[in-house]
Amino acid sequence: MAYRDERLPREKVFRDPVHNYIYIQHQVILDLINTKEFQRLRRIKQLGTASLVFHGAEHTRFTHSLGVYEITRRICDNFKRNYPTKTAGDGLWDDDKERLVALCAALLHDIGHGPYSHTFEHIFNTDHEVITAEILTSPETEVNQVLRAVSPEFPEQVASVIQKTYPNPQVVQMISSQIDADRMDYLLRDAYHTGTKYGTFDLTRILRVMRPYRDGIAFQISGMHAVEDYIMSRFQMYQQIYFHPTSRSMEVILSHLLLRAREYYSNADNANEMGAPYLLFPFFKHEFDLDDYLLLDDGTLTTYFAHWRQSGDPILSDLSHRFLDRKPLKSVIYTSETEHELPGLRDLIEKAGFNAKYYTATNNSYDLPYDAYDPKMKKPLTQIELMEEDGDLIELSSVSALVNAITGKFSGDQRFFFPREMLQNNAADTDLFDPIYQAFQQHIHNDTLI
Amino acid sequence: MAYRDERLPREKVFRDPVHNYIYIQHQVILDLINTKEFQRLRRIKQLGTASLVFHGAEHTRFTHSLGVYEITRRICDNFKRNYPTKTAGDGLWDDDKERLVALCAALLHDIGHGPYSHTFEHIFNTDHEVITAEILTSPETEVNQVLRAVSPEFPEQVASVIQKTYPNPQVVQMISSQIDADRMDYLLRDAYHTGTKYGTFDLTRILRVMRPYRDGIAFQISGMHAVEDYIMSRFQMYQQIYFHPTSRSMEVILSHLLLRAREYYSNADNANEMGAPYLLFPFFKHEFDLDDYLLLDDGTLTTYFAHWRQSGDPILSDLSHRFLDRKPLKSVIYTSETEHELPGLRDLIEKAGFNAKYYTATNNSYDLPYDAYDPKMKKPLTQIELMEEDGDLIELSSVSALVNAITGKFSGDQRFFFPREMLQNNAADTDLFDPIYQAFQQHIHNDTLI
Amino acid sequence: MAYRDERLPREKVFRDPVHNYIYIQHQVILDLINTKEFQRLRRIKQLGTASLVFHGAEHTRFTHSLGVYEITRRICDNFKRNYPTKTAGDGLWDDDKERLVALCAALLHDIGHGPYSHTFEHIFNTDHEVITAEILTSPETEVNQVLRAVSPEFPEQVASVIQKTYPNPQVVQMISSQIDADRMDYLLRDAYHTGTKYGTFDLTRILRVMRPYRDGIAFQISGMHAVEDYIMSRFQMYQQIYFHPTSRSMEVILSHLLLRAREYYSNADNANEMGAPYLLFPFFKHEFDLDDYLLLDDGTLTTYFAHWRQSGDPILSDLSHRFLDRKPLKSVIYTSETEHELPGLRDLIEKAGFNAKYYTATNNSYDLPYDAYDPKMKKPLTQIELMEEDGDLIELSSVSALVNAITGKFSGDQRFFFPREMLQNNAADTDLFDPIYQAFQQHIHNDTLI
Amino acid sequence: MAYRDERLPREKVFRDPVHNYIYIQHQVILDLINTKEFQRLRRIKQLGTASLVFHGAEHTRFTHSLGVYEITRRICDNFKRNYPTKTAGDGLWDDDKERLVALCAALLHDIGHGPYSHTFEHIFNTDHEVITAEILTSPETEVNQVLRAVSPEFPEQVASVIQKTYPNPQVVQMISSQIDADRMDYLLRDAYHTGTKYGTFDLTRILRVMRPYRDGIAFQISGMHAVEDYIMSRFQMYQQIYFHPTSRSMEVILSHLLLRAREYYSNADNANEMGAPYLLFPFFKHEFDLDDYLLLDDGTLTTYFAHWRQSGDPILSDLSHRFLDRKPLKSVIYTSETEHELPGLRDLIEKAGFNAKYYTATNNSYDLPYDAYDPKMKKPLTQIELMEEDGDLIELSSVSALVNAITGKFSGDQRFFFPREMLQNNAADTDLFDPIYQAFQQHIHNDTLI
């Protein structure tokens, strides 16, 4: 039997807290899970610094990737049972042709992520999407070897789904659209592990009303409220979890810490110290290859931080301490009207003895909860289409007042981060810095810069 | 106000997936959570290698420690509301005197754990209980500084609860007995994160029927079945999760890997290589202090393994690969009757090219699900007492046929671990090793050595 | 001890699927639950005909009433712990004075409901609010006897909370406002029993951010998103459960059935038949007293329907059959533009052999999901107030784009109901009525009248 | 297409709180659900008087019947996917032949139940199994008409599955054995609605390890602990829910009430009173037909009780009041050693003014949680078989110490029920009956007769 069609003699399952079981039916999928590149995702937390606020959220990208696979598998099952193609081009689902490429793309869509991905990329100018494509298509990876065994062009096909250039929009939208297997899994999973309820929506019902059509995936109109509820859940998760100020403040510390390390180890003497971060040197110099990248995980970084906490460089040492021992910065909301106050605040912070470059930051958190298709956007979004009984399509926000209220509107805030010492109230009367703290605190009211 | 009585101006909460919220009311507790020794528990997984079988089980000892604190807090609330002491020695609960010491002991009971605790201790002869006591009582730790601020003797008091020498048995049994806050939290939490249901029992009901008496803690007889159900849950979790053969096989690899590393780096040349595990050297030589110990976490070990995977030593490299990339050993059950076959099997494994010292192991997993008090035991267990309406006590197994069935009986199995290559079926016909594999496989039937 | 202060020697609990346990601490509350008027609520379903669509929703008003009590109890606990009054008029919570009246009002707020309340009231012109007040204040009820034992004016006080005339707005709003114990319980409970997820919101968090102030109850601004999420849940439950067209169609049948019965039994001969509905006669004539009312429950009505199903009157018999054996009417949405078509449709239905008076109906379902206070409304709503750190209040819809999108806007639809026979497709070719059906069906497209 | 193969153009679903969705795929099944005999199950509570103790347990036999159908459907799906027959007699699953008969039997297995089945049968000597068979095979029922349309012998086939005489033991054991779809649904459902956790077991895992073999259904040995856990859950539900003394005491009242009514209405004058229970007369005389039976539901009985509460017969009136207004009897455990005390107690109760015939009772509750096959039993049980890797079978209790501990042992107790007035403590000093109460109370200690 061709490798692409090889079924396991008996279904294999992984117990999963969100989906109960993950069902593995293809030898290809099992082989991909067993590659070292995929196993490495066990050592990279899904939510990065958010686990420092929501302590249960210690789950990894490994777990999430299996979940995206499982949701995709269920979508395929439903499409095969209810909307099987009869003649080429009829806009229905061609399971024989599309299932395996969809499943592989779902499983591997995050394989290029590194530790604390967002921050790491920002500082070292890496790109997890580029690296994902590399892992899929470079002949030396175990992932590529498995994919290649399906067919020589299969690695590129899977990569093209993730890059949204695959010809069948049904497959692309399954993995990547405003309501896709990726988002549905992370909302449910992050809600489960944080212990919050905002991310809960009715997955079974959404899978039930999902259907293929010529230009991608649509939802039966009878399921409108279930889709609406999913959009609301997503909105809430961003507001309550992903944009949490304390979590963002730990990201600020992390990025300043990596910046400081690059600067410190650019000095050749320092670079020869015991405990120098050899594995990071290629990134400090921006001369890294795929092997360098695949050696990194969350533990590598925190192991360096533990070394650095004992460093002779006071800033490197202090920032490492603040990160490992969880001493977040504080923050206030500012707006374009109050932004002009920031230089004054930074001055006060410098006067209080902090290097403003490493101890302050501004950080914007904005999300577009939903938008209709807009050809003028740089990357136009695939809008959510509802299908009426007679087959007509209608865009979600045109029938949902709730969705319409947030369509095309960014939500979030911009914050100025600073050391919590600036808010100290218990300074002794004779404290030399007292007037500085008082001047600083006058600018803050109701969590906002005034 | 005395520090020991200092309440937070407003209750602080941590969102928790198992208990919904963890409520912090004392400044002391908040300060303990913020110590570096406690924050370090965020980097040590609760279940070690079990997350390699149950992928959701990536939760840490930090999370569990908060949970044990919360259950203890709820027990104290119930005791205070329903069983407050009136006169000294009446066998009821003295909340003013005992609450804080109970809460601190609950929170800190696991603070001495290191990475992959069980295996690490076995190989390096460390003892997490000794280290816990050290962290509580050594003046240089942040934990000790917080405890000392309560009173000079407070650190010793908290330590004595954990060591079971504290005079009030109610406090000791709350934290450590056959049905204590520790076990109740880990069963519920491990069930939640693995996604299994075996560990689920009725916590609210058990807390409701729990009550203090002169010699410790008893349970109203009306709650007998809830207690029975807890014992059953515990039994099931051991059988299904904690004793899982694949998880034990990953522990075998881990311990052999650490053994090999100690041997390899005992050679001075190797010890000077780049990437040598400086942080482990004190343990290789068994000359470590508390600071050395507190630098270690899960990430430190896996970072070394990533280095070792590229080592020139083939065994060190291969075992690192097997651990990081999850290539478990296989195993079979053996008994005292079949044990004599093991040397023969080890010979075959050597012939197939594996060093039996590093590639085979025997491992017993036995648990005593419940036992009545037996003065002849080395460490007699506190039996579970049920209280009748008239105040009489009756031991659990004497009224529960189910509990009686497993009382005093060890459950578990003993297994022989070996490389999965020994079971390969797809060896080419001309394979030189074929007769070896065949000879080996003849000894295995229905997962058992014959 | 005064009866009002009498605590149970030991807390009593009722196991509850939504709140886990309901805790009873006052003798008064236990005595109220044991009255015959309260026990009668066990025989009246909470959701009426909705259980004919969501089969799990068979829970009763008894269960819900206990739930409203429990939520109120938890609110009082939180207020007492965190916001106790110090001086009269400080806007904080006076637990000694207010707890018992709040708990009784919560428990008894629905005590005047009868079977299929909404429909029954509409047809027989009864009013459950008036009856609630009567049950509380009439000396012959068991409820009144319990309340009177607290103090002579206590029955009136409890009634005034339910009627919103009680002087302390904190107590009134706890039981009755846009976010009160009543709504919070029914959303969670109806979601639980229907098995849908829309009604799920974060009760614990809402209770945590709730606080008393001078003019009632406010919510800390940090909990804004939890409150917003509650409003969304409420909106979804109305759209998906409470307004379900099939459930409304069964209500239409029920009301037509009761109408027909009144007409039929107004004939004296019929009124003497075996199985005549003696218990309903006082309502047919609108000459009923409280005793008549309290004899009715769901079972009384369905028992009559079972008799009527065998009646000689074909309409009474057929409608009884349609209700008991669940044969819903069909429906289409119409608007003010298409309303003029209805008489033509009714004609076709008459031609097909149905009495349009009993076999057709129009029915509007509209809900106001949230509104700010508007003095011009007949019954202005208590708006939801958020409290900022400095104590300022801010109305919910002014900070939540989502809530704003539905504020003051009615949601729902208007539908025309008719026999499902009108849509039959399998009429034999020679069917005389065929042209009638075809004419009828031409008016319907995508579930809408055209 | 033949009716038996007729699939719905699109799967229909019912939202279910336990199974999430119930999937209907055959026209036959939908037609059966729509019969009046099946709809009648909506008016018969699953747990009878247990809802008077666990107030959430108001679910009906309708809901449970759908659940048994759904579990059976999932078993068939699994068997079809993994164990399809290849040659007749190979011991695997013949889905084409067996699915529909299995589904119909699952759906209809409880169709003969009446209101408060257990008690009603006991008093009126009816038998729900006989009636089930009658409903399936009598030509006048709607159920029979649907079944007959499949084939003339189909009604008898379905009936034979329920009567365990159907030739294929796989189908019989699916519906009726020690681990069948019936029990699995009611344990989960009763746990859900009572809000207890004891009934929770891992349904998905059990369905996964279930498999057909020549003589019925077996379970893969790897699932032993899941099966063991199911047996434990079942045991706990009996101990904690089904055998609850208060629930049994309400059954005692109910049976005495029906007895009294039969006696009272055997007098012709009484039988002509307004409100006389015409629908029960056929049962009083034991001359009923199927139509008489199908007219009854829970509401019919409680409607009569409401009438009787106002009866001139003091015992009929008082027992009706005790049932409707929930005034349970009290009870004590007695044994064969203390049984001789009962006549003395009955004397005291008579002296206190109660008719012992109607106000006392003995009631045994015993369940056999599990047993191996024993040919000496009157109705030998199908034992639970585990299948080893090589196909050998092994009986459950021989490998599970827990199950072995309760195998073949009846659990439960025997209780003596009496009016709670006998325990009154607040009798005035001058109470004439005081010595009687004191004499009575001396016999009771720790809930047990002494």
From TrEMBL, chains A, B, C, D:
<feature type="domain" description="HD">
    <location>
        <begin position="61"/>
        <end position="187"/>
    </location>
</feature>
<dbReference type="InterPro" id="IPR003607">
    <property type="entry name" value="HD/PDEase_dom"/>
</dbReference>
<dbReference type="GO" id="GO:0006203">
    <property type="term" value="P:dGTP catabolic process"/>
</dbReference>
<protein>
    <recommendedName>
        <fullName>HD domain-containing protein</fullName>
    </recommendedName>
</protein>
<dbReference type="InterPro" id="IPR050135">
    <property type="entry name" value="dGTPase-like"/>
</dbReference>
<dbReference type="Pfam" id="PF01966">
    <property type="entry name" value="HD"/>
</dbReference>
<dbReference type="InterPro" id="IPR006674">
    <property type="entry name" value="HD_domain"/>
</dbReference>
<dbReference type="InterPro" id="IPR045509">
    <property type="entry name" value="HD_assoc_2"/>
</dbReference>
<dbReference type="GO" id="GO:0008832">
    <property type="term" value="F:dGTPase activity"/>
</dbReference>
<dbReference type="Pfam" id="PF19276">
    <property type="entry name" value="HD_assoc_2"/>
</dbReference>
